[in-house]
Amino acid sequence: MTPETIRQLIEQGLPGARAEVRGDDGVHFEATVVAEAFRGKLPLARHRLVYATLGGRMGGEIHALALKTLTPEEAARSP
């Protein structure tokens, strides 16, 4: 699995989301996801939304995914 494939899956599954995905070994990844859908949601709920876009790939093709989830406003304030 490539970071680009994961980015596409997340962005297709969360309309309007922007994702940046990194990972060098093909199974461990880090992603920053910015989405309006995160507004008013706690981090666990945000992560579940992202995991839902990846379905059964989590724990299989994707061994680990470290997430940073932000609303557009949070992203604008982030350095």
Automatic annotation (TrEMBL):
This is Acid stress-induced BolA-like protein IbaG/YrbA. InterPro entries: BolA, BolA-like_sf, BolA/IbaG_stress_morph_reg. GO terms for cellular component: cytosol. One of its GO terms (biological process) is DNA-templated transcription. It comes from the Bacteria. Belongs to the BolA/IbaG family. The lineage of its organism: Bacteria, Pseudomonadati, Pseudomonadota, Gammaproteobacteria, Lysobacterales.
